[in-house]
Amino acid sequence: MRLIPPEERLILALDLPTKDEAIKVVKRVEGYIRFFKVGLQLFLASHFYMVDWLGDKGYKVFLDLKLHDIPNTVIHALNVMSQHPVTFTTLHAEESILRAGVEAVGDRIGILAVTVLTSVDPKYFNWGKSLEEVVIERTGIAIDAGCVGVIASGKEVSLIRKEYGEDPIIVTPGIRSQSTGVRDDQKRTVTAFEAIKNGSDYIVVGRPILNALDPKTVIVEIVKDIEKAMKK
Ligand code: C5P
Hints:
Elements lengths: L9 E4 L5 H10 L6 E4 L1 H7 L2 H8 L3 E8 L3 H11 L6 E5 L2 H11 L4 E5 L16 H15 L3 E3 L5 H8 L4 E4 L19 H7 L3 E4 L1 H4 L4 H17 L1
Parallel strand pairs: 1-2, 1-8, 2-3, 3-4, 4-5, 5-6, 6-7, 7-8
Helix pairs in contact: 4-5, 6-7, 8-10
The structure holds cytidine-5'-monophosphate.
């Protein structure tokens, strides 16, 4: 297991419509979260303002844009992104796209390949292979292309670790607590404890924290779960 402090393993997804609302949330959880994710909604609303603002304040930033375009376009987009304080970004797991991305950013940004979205229901997965086979295949493509790691559901993390060992960074969204039973649009959900115990390095959590009456209490519970799982 990588030496990452438990409180840095929780990435808060700032899935919010404006920079003002995002800043309000960041201030509300100050001292509790070190790593934030800016996704499509907030990026489209704030351009690089939020990314730079978070970087200036010393936070780590995961800019999750899930790019899927021809290599030339991806290279130019990532050249722009490289001028900003971004720790991780996401590309879809197609070989030419990943190779182009890695070539463009070198070691300035960690490229994570999206395997199969956590909102995909295995019941309706009909790609001629099992969902797990696709995840394993795409993780292999990501590693060969030089990506630092992948985004994968906690359901497939153990499989990835078995096949590819400790090296790839695995970031897991689709985290839900057993007690509330709320899954929203996510299908392959696990708890924070399960994700880390199965081998995830980081978890991404959005709505369970953003919609909570007391976000700090939820964060504390999640970090406790992470700590417990790290001791297993
Ligand atoms: O609100 P919730 O905790 O479901 O948010 C999960 C976050 O992780 C969202 O920002 C979503 O875009 C992102 N994500 C995901 N599944 C992936 C990759 C990213 O849910 N495979």
